[in-house]
Amino acid sequence: MSKSGKKDDFTLALLQSGDKLPQQERRRFLKKSLGMAGAITASGLAGNAVAGSKNTPPEVPPWSRRLGAGVLSNPYGQPSRYEANVQRRSVDWLTADRIASISFTPLGDIKGIITPSGLVFERYHAGVPEIDPQQHRLMIHGMVKRPIILTMDELMRFPSLSMVRFLECPANGGMEWRGAQMDRLQFTHGMLSCCEWTGVLLSTLLEEVGVDKGASWILAEGADGAHMSRSIPMEKALDDALIVFAQNGEALRPEQGYPVRLINPGWEGNTSIKWLRRLEIGDKPWHHREETSKYTDLMPDGTAREFTYVQECNSVVTFPCPEKPLAQPGKYFVEGLAWSGRGRIRHVDVSFDGGVSWREARFTSELTPRALTRFGLEWDWDGSPALIQSRAVDDTGYVQPTLNQLKAVRGTNSIYHKNGIHTWKILPDGKVSNVQIS
Amino acid sequence: MYRFPSVPANSLLIVLALLSAGCTQDTSDKADKTIENNIASKNDPLAGYVDNRTGYYGYGSPATTEQITGWDIDVRPDGMGLPEGSGSVEDGETLYEDKCAECHGTFGEGEGRYPVLAGGQGSLKDARPTKTVGSYWPYTSTLFDYIHRAMPFTQPESLSANETYAVTAYVLYLNDLVEDDFVLNRDNLASVHLPNEGNFVADPRPDVANERCMENCRDPGEIKIVSEVSPSAAEQTSVQEGSASPGSAADSAGNAAQKHPGEGTYQQYCSICHAVGVGGAPKLGDVTTWAARIEKGIDTLIANAVNGVTSNTGVMPAKGGFAQLSDDEVAAAVRYMVEVSQ
Known about the structure:
heterodimer, A: alpha+beta, 5-stranded mixed β-sheet, 5-stranded antiparallel β-sheet, B: mainly alpha, two-stranded antiparallel ribbon, 13 helices, 7 strands
């Protein structure tokens, strides 16, 4: 907001984006929803707030009549104990054990576009190494003029910068090529997070070591037991690849690669090597296990696509969803997340009838390239069954495809890069099921 | 002491120099010169320092050949990076049965959800393809590289070069790609071609073209639900350890206090084998199998878990292969497993 109390350009742009209710309709809507709010309080919310509670008006709750905990009772702050249910979860049948496994971000519970560090999805191939930053080293060698070894202190002395970017496992949604089988948003789309990442551009380090003529690939390798490795094309390294030591304002979490990791914005998360110990510059890709046996997309004709780096434009409705059903018919603000590895989100449309008709949603967060973008729109649910979908368009003009369009080209065995339009079915009682439609 | 009075400004110069070099398609030599000119220009207070420093900032130490050799483990399809050494199918068989079969199966068929290594040739177009070294992987070098960098699962980077060649040879043999008298070495590895090498293609995306239709986009009568997961299942979903039930105010610290002190270690480490019985490991909760062991006394069980033990029913590596665990952590995990399994 500016001093005059007027909204700034960005806020105005957000409010003006999307499908506007006509002015008259809006006034009627506001009037009605105010009345509605009273009704909800009487019937729904009061009951929600614990029946027979002595802590709701007109009673005064005990926490208002005594002192609370003082400073430093919790030197590193934690969420309220009432938020204990907001946590990463896993699906045991997905992997053989919990060391080489994955957990999912609770997308239905997080707000805004930043994923709190402790809720960022986990993916390990040999568990989380416990690394002493004083003893960690980053080696840069290969086709370079000056191979070097950096301590963390030395790395952090280079000019660094911060960017908000999403991180998504290319297997996100990969369990549902053949049909719906996950029972909550956390599992259908939760291999997805978005953080502010702080670090040194890889291009800065390459300038420092002097890259030889003919160098075109970089092997990034982790210090974990899997020595996780991926081949990164030089174009990405010179574009926006970032050698990251901080996330959301603090040191990387161990789960996220402490003390240092690579982030390849917009690319499959697997390439963003955690616990980074080595960068080797070469003239060919290495074709390692995680870019041949895994993270390649098997097509119906038996061929497989390799080096499928970009996470294409995608979106999902986060409210309502199976974890967040509708209490009763009435006015709702439907919400969701959209993202594209190629750039900014340009439009998000929402359908309530399985894709027959669409309304453009408003953006409710800043439009940052290769970051999560939040959208929403008003919906008056009359209690009849509905099929809710969202469809994002990015600034390359790419329109998020239907799942059937994807399957027509790729079949059902490609595992990775499933970015098809997702469908939630609203049942008459307001519960939400995960469905796929013809 | 660092005498860089205007580091950010100069760094910008370098970036600009590189960018302009790129735009005019200068050779990298030329670009380097441009950088040096910028750094060592007459007006630059840094002139004269350049030659003594690594790169521009001069941070870090030169990586010595010895240091690089210790970490440079990667191998490429053309054989670059392969170490000296060799290994036979015969030697590989012994190693495989000792170190690999408990997860990957005697014939590479895979135990539990651990990867299948052999078979599946010709299945890639099937409804349920089996992707193995023989049916899917493009390069033998990848197998060598991966075994050396990440296997055995609980003891990564523990195999010598000769052992890695031998295990690689044996996995090739399990896939009928080499004979039983085959010996793999640095010189012949790149010439062992895998059947699926030619079937990898470049990423052609975007490969679908949806349209941004807004009205009457499809016939409502055609819309049918083809698969559905009911929300009632959501409540039955196994909410994983550490999670409180919905609406519960119990904080995680409270939960941790109620947990057995060894449960965390069990879940994180021991469960890899003891949840499903990999390698003859007694399964958690299997009262019969545990009874015979419990008879030996808790001290013996803990000592075996800490130091490792081999019996005719299986192998327990010292601390399960997780050397970073303290003896107390292992002991607590053993107590937990005994408690739950009697």
